[in-house]
Amino acid sequence: MEHFDGKPGSSQQTLKGTSRWTASLENLLEDPEGVKRFREFLKKEFSEENVLFWLACEEFKKTQDKKQMQEKAKEIYMTFLSSKASCQVNVEGQSRLNETMLEEPHPLMFQKLQDQIFNLMKYDSYSRFLKSDIFLKHKRAEEQEENSSEAQSVAKRASRIYNT
């Protein structure tokens, strides 16, 4: 994933909100508000399970404790990958992931499946999201907020100049 490089003037650093979201799916998924809006969109498209699976895998990779890892691996499997899953994702090779593998989990055990889902979102849902009402309304609200705060700061500067 892309992260700020910390250099002043970095284009990544100056982009905010919807501008960052349009730069890449990675940026969108790093922003809690972006994830919220993307989930809202995917829910309408009946494919929210994709981003939920991706987020669960991201969280799983951070798990250190072996017992917790086993529990989370089983939860991910039962929720997203099992034939009886409540939020089943459509990925190739999910049948090769079986319950015996859940006994010896490792942080990257879902990586290939997570990559498939990421690519599905990136090349399918993400481009539609950027054209959706959900995204466009949020972008307009953000732009109005920016314009009103800019107008306020101009007014404050003007009042300081004329009230001296």
From TrEMBL:
SUPFAM superfamilies listed in its UniProt record: Regulator of G-protein signaling, RGS (SSF48097)
Coiled coil (residue ranges): none
TM annotation in the entry: none
InterPro entries named in the record: RGS (IPR016137), RGS10/12/14-like (IPR046995), RGS10_RGS (IPR037879), RGS_sf (IPR036305), RGS_subdom1/3 (IPR024066), RGS_subdomain_2 (IPR044926)
Stored Gene3D superfamilies: 1.10.196.10, Regulator of G-protein Signalling 4, domain 2
UniProt keyword annotations, A-Z: GTPase activation
GO MF terms, alphabetically ordered: G-protein alpha-subunit binding; GTPase activator activity
Protein name (Swiss-Prot/TrEMBL): Regulator of G protein signaling 10
Organism: Chelonoidis abingdonii (Abingdon island giant tortoise)
Chain's gene name: RGS10
